[in-house]
Design brief:
Length: about 290
């Protein structure tokens, strides 16, 4: 046999003798912000499938058949929970495929607030507390290691880097928000309770009382009554919501209308960098309107 043939055969034997790395099981997540955190933990080993599409409404979303199929075939589903994504809750119940389900609101160490101040409820927008984001990273690393033990050390190392990055984002946000002080602001819906509690934001009202209910005339009148003559308050429209309500509230007073906020990050570029872009973007938008002059 020619020398080059012997070398090729030997090389093939070496390759066949090497252990083949197991593929990371398919991972499905509900929202882009969860996808960002999970992507940081997965690193170069893969990327999660984010179900909520760009521009979609997180509170009124319907899975396409291909997405329902992805949920049915997933090895791991990491999601916020039924309080945020009831549409995924229904899909998981319908598939019955036995995939590992990790509802992050139930993860160890997560700090929960009531929704809209109503006792006994859960505000699902918990990613705006950096401590919760770090708890979610730990939960994702543990879940990934549970279905892919061969890469457990990589997931752990990636999680450590991700949490350091969250701490850095937290420090940036605190610096951006410092000039805002206790300036009163109006949000479109109750999505920023965790952000307010963490960074001292003074939210005096929300336009919508729930996640999908347009305000009535009485609600608008009540908010207008909060605005003191000569006082200045900032109000922020949101992605997927009609800003006309804010302009009605602001008629004849000194209400400032800020730039649109996107608490569910449906307009941001998906991927590992989305979490930082969301947090810095929210802080910068609020500070541009609400900082003391």
């Amino acid at each position: 046999m020619p020398l080059h043939s012997n070398l090729c055969a030997a090389a093939m034997l070496v390759l066949l003798a090497r252990p083949v790395a197991a593929d990371v099981p398919s991972v499905v997540v509900d929202l882009p912000v969860v996808g960002s955190l999970v992507a940081q933990v997965m690193g170069d080993l893969g990327q999660p499938l984010v179900l909520l599409e760009p521009g979609a409404d997180a509170h009124d979303f319907q899975l396409r058949p291909s997405q329902a199929g992805a949920v049915a075939g997933a090895g791991l589903v990491i999601w916020i929970g039924a309080d945020m994504s009831p549409w995924l809750d229904r899909a998981l119940a319908a598939t019955g495929n036995g995939a590992v389900s990790v509802p992050l609101l139930q993860a160890p160490g997560v700090r929960l607030h009531p929704f809209n101040g109503v006792a006994g409820t859960i505000d699902p927008h918990a990613w705006f507390d950096p401590a919760n984001a770090k708890a979610w990273v730990d939960a994702a690393a543990a879940a990934l290691a549970g279905v892919d033990a061969a890469h457990a050390a990589t997931f752990s190392a990636n999680a450590k880097r991700a949490k350091a990055g969250i701490d850095a984002v937290d420090a940036e946000v605190r610096a951006i928000m410092a000039p805002v002080g206790d300036m009163p602001v109006i949000m479109f819906h109750d999505a920023f309770g965790y952000f307010a509690a963490t960074y001292g934001l003074n939210i005096v009202a929300t336009v919508e009382e729930g996640d999908a209910a347009d305000p009535g005339a009485a609600r608008i009148a009540a908010i207008r009554a909060l605005l003191q003559p000569g006082g200045t308050v900032c109000a922020f429209p949101e992605a997927n919501h009609d800003p006309a309500f804010l302009h009605t509230i602001g008629e004849g007073n000194n209400l400032r209308i800020g730039t649109e906020l996107d608490p569910e990050a449906v307009t941001l570029e998906p991927g590992p960098g989305l979490y930082r872009a969301l947090m810095i973007g929210v802080a910068t938008t609020i500070a541009a309107c609400a900082k003391r002059q």
